[in-house]
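Methods — Computational structure assignment.
A single polypeptide chain was analysed. Its primary sequence is given first, followed by the predicted tertiary structure written as structure tokens.
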Amino acid sequence: MRNFIAILGALTLAGCVGSIGENPDDDDDVFDGTDPSDPRLEARVWRLTPSQYNAEVQRLFPGAPAVNLPEGSSEYGITNISVAARIDLGNASQFIDAARTVGTWASTQGAAAARCDAFGTPACVDTFLGWFPEAAYRRPLTDAEKAELRAVYDDTAATYGPEWAFSAVVRAVLLSPQFLYRSEIGPDGQGVVEIDEYEIASLLAFSLTDKAPDAELLADAKAGLLHDPAIREQHARRLMDNSAVIWQRFFWEWLKMSTLASQGNETGLDPALVAQLEDEYKAFVEGIVVKGRGDLADLLTTNHTWGTPEVAAYYGASHPGSGVAQIDFDPDQRGGLLTLGAWLVAHGKKGRDNVVRRGMSVYRDAMCNDIVPLNIDLEAAVKDLVGADATVKQIADARTADPTCGACHKTSDPVGLAFENFAGDGTWQTTYADGKPVESTVVLDGATYESAPALSAALAADQPFQQCLVRRFGHFVMGADFGSPQTVRASTEAFEAFRDSGGSFEELLVAIVRDPAFIQRRK
């Protein structure tokens, strides 16, 4: 794979900035908690995402209405980032409205929402305050917090009655920073500190399952065990069974697949089928990564998926009956995530070819290469190079050979060409609409790849691709850039664990969770 790496990863030319080389030798590095190249995140608090907020509300009050809350910004497509997770004057009213909606609904449910026998009685209030705030704060309450919430109820009930007072307590808790935010502050002190047990429990739970810590995590937090990396590893392996939503969202964001619906519309796909392709993608990721405990090669080469009869028909494959079931691909046509309709359509468009769009998606996003677009009219430049009648491959070859265009396109176009047997809508094609044949065989530094599945298999074994995955997943889990495996100790060790395990996603997760950087913060 070294030659393939040299072609795809180690290039720095005009218009293309960024390269990923071989993993450095870090044997001489000393870990002392002060190396600025390590991801020593600052002590922080960061807001629950909208999906986490709604999941928490459902945990506390099953059946409560979902509420709309503002999404944060993103970095490299990763949305769950601490720097964007804030409440300010511009969005505070949305959180107030959300708390009011949930509080009003809960008060109408009465005893069922309070989990008591007789709503409005002192015993019911004691029961409600005995479980609700602690569950919402994801840690034990202090005496002062208990007294404050009791005062909210008592003061309000005296004037407005028990239903209004119940709603007021719900609103007070849902608007509190203890509920809205995840804190990673740790004890008083200067320098690098370890966050506290309940902060570790929340970090583990939300990072691995997008949900609050369960009873087992909270029990170990109470027992003071979560500073032990071996205990964190046990929880990481246990929580893998519930981690599907995390992996689904990670690959979706890393590979920039949020354009699926818009590009499905542009290419003329039925919106109902597009929704099923998204569901199929989720089933594929869960089946490979979580249920199968698969590795990167499995993710990029497996030649079956799980979907409905409509999805099978879209692929030209057979389906065993009704509902969601395994669908087997023709191994010469498809294999792995990059040949699923969801990725292909997200990076497809209406028109003849998708070489640039799909090739750049792999080279730029999946391999962590920064692209600085050249200030030229690309279409005019191509016409000057080959004329209006050229085939797609002739155009790609001309871009590659040109000193200006080739700075970027010599790396990305061969990758994009390998996926040209898939039309903009992701269906299989052997000719274009103009009758010209699809030419998808590519040569990269002397190695020939005759199909997209063959190229996908090569990517699974490619070090820059693996390094980028590790960096972006660390960013995703930590809520801040994890750093390059070339330069950052913790990221390097995570990459080595991933590589040495044969690309195991579970071992990557365990390596990140075990590392001191996972629970240490700068103050």
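Note: Strands lie at 16-17, 44-47, 181-184, 192-194, 304-307, 325-328, 370-371, 442-444, 447-449, 520-522.
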